[in-house]
């Protein structure tokens, strides 16, 4: 963090802004008062829907993959009797095997979510 | 154990923490300095800082202890602690960053436009924070007792005092690079001993106390799975992570939603690497120190194993390293929590002044200290797991529905949070008493998340649907801000 060329000046604030999420960033959609706003709202809703669908799909996919992995550990014969450095392979697999899955799933989601946002942006900019 | 090692390590970490705390006054960032300065924080730094704040006594000591005690069922704890960040990535990270909310109460108030929703959320955050601090103080008690021979309460009091003083003085824990440093310290404090122990054990001396078949019996293995308990634990850990107050604050330091996502993926990598080491410690413990499980000192496994396997000065250095890492874990997690709690308490009850923040910091430490002194630790990983169950049943449903469902109303949110709090709270507190008389329902009380979370969601949705006032006027604009990319 110290290698940033010119850090912005520090501003001390003693309490969070109570208005909650009052972000300085302008909001694209203006609401329902004009036709362009209507279309913008439709785009936003479709963005939210596609992001939700993506998140749920990835979460369910992760859960299913985990269950299958655990079933495989439990059902493949011999994993309890084969040893890796004195530890049964079944223990090693459960102890270390799910983390690569978590990271892979996270990485895939990162790209897919960015794609959804890129699609939204190109639609909104065509406007 | 030679008490001098314990004293040196503990006093060293305490001094460094206090020094950084007072020095930090000069470059102090109180809670909201995040708003401006931290926009330059890179995802790697931020992710390290999240890891530094997140890895608590439960992760550092508890996981290995539980593996020693219960076998492979304990392996689900680190999996859940890590995969919780996957859920955070999927459902919360980017929208929450874009919401501009700084704490969960800020979020519910902005989303639901209701001061009452804010108050209920604040109350829950305070309860969750308190009960999350308790195991940290109990871990400190254990560490001090094992390593120095002093009475247990000394450890709890010492950590509580250091945290209260440091937070009240400067709130230095908000400084990203200190927390980031804590992560790498904790990782080193486990990785170096693990590698050293593996080298020693690989040489065949000392020999294992149990044969592999005895140390890792199939009856404690992955094949012998209690399905309800495992599923319920995973629900608690996966969803509970979303609502942890001290974790959430960190997300504001990301420049935008996309960076928040990238940070979270890096957190997944860091946690995955970290948890390999407590896991290996646990495996070593099963083969080389099975007696600790019988004597009820399983949580001290990480502290005791280096000395047992490597006698002499090298063992002393390794022991000092793990003690320092453990104390770093207690201090960093507790102070992260105390800062979050003090922020909420001072803002909602004391008007948000700096003096109010200081009073709140002391209150936030004293209450869990009293609880920690009055109760016995029943396994660090387990107690933290119960806090996750409570969080998952209360804050998580409101957070997720608030971000993704425009139909959420303040009445629905309040009703759901109270339902989840009462049900999971009753199960957690009353469970131990009822479970002995009616053993059949014991698992459902000891791991309540699998039924309390769905019930909380049902109550939220039903009450929101019936709420004649409908959704707040600004809902659409707010949801737009949550989901539309910044640039």
How are the elements arranged and paired?
The complex is a heterodimer of chains A (about 130) and B (about 475).
Chain A: H1 35-75, E1 83-84, E2 87-88, H2 89-96, H3 98-126
Antiparallel strand pairs in A: 1-2
Helix pairs in contact in A: 1-3
Chain B: H1 3-23, H2 34-37, H3 43-54, H4 57-70, H5 76-91, H6 93-99, H7 104-112, H8 115-148, H9 152-169, H10 176-202, H11 212-215, H12 227-240, H13 245-250, H14 257-288, H15 291-294, H16 301-309, H17 313-349, H18 354-374, H19 380-404, H20 410-437, H21 442-446, H22 449-466, H23 475-483
Helix pairs in contact in B: 1-9, 1-17, 3-10, 3-14, 4-14, 4-19, 5-12, 5-14, 6-14, 6-23, 7-8, 7-19, 8-9, 8-17, 8-18, 8-19, 8-20, 9-17, 9-18, 10-14, 10-17, 12-19, 12-22, 14-16, 16-17, 17-18, 19-20, 19-22, 20-22
Protein model, in words:
- Chain B: InterPro entries: Na/Glc_symporter_sf, Na/solute_symporter, Sodium:Solute_Symporter.
- Chain B: It is a multi-pass membrane protein.
- Chain B: It comes from Agromyces humatus.
- Chain B: Belongs to the sodium:solute symporter (SSF) (TC 2.A.21) family.
- With 127 residues, chain A is mainly alpha-helical.
- Chain A is built from three helices and two strands.
- Chain A has a two-stranded antiparallel sheet with strand order 1-2.
- In chain A, strand 1 and strand 2 form a beta hairpin.
- Chain A is elongated, with a radius of gyration of 24 Å.
- The relative contact order of chain A is 0.11.
- Chain B is mainly alpha-helical and 487 residues long.
- The longest helix of chain B has 37 residues, at 313-349.
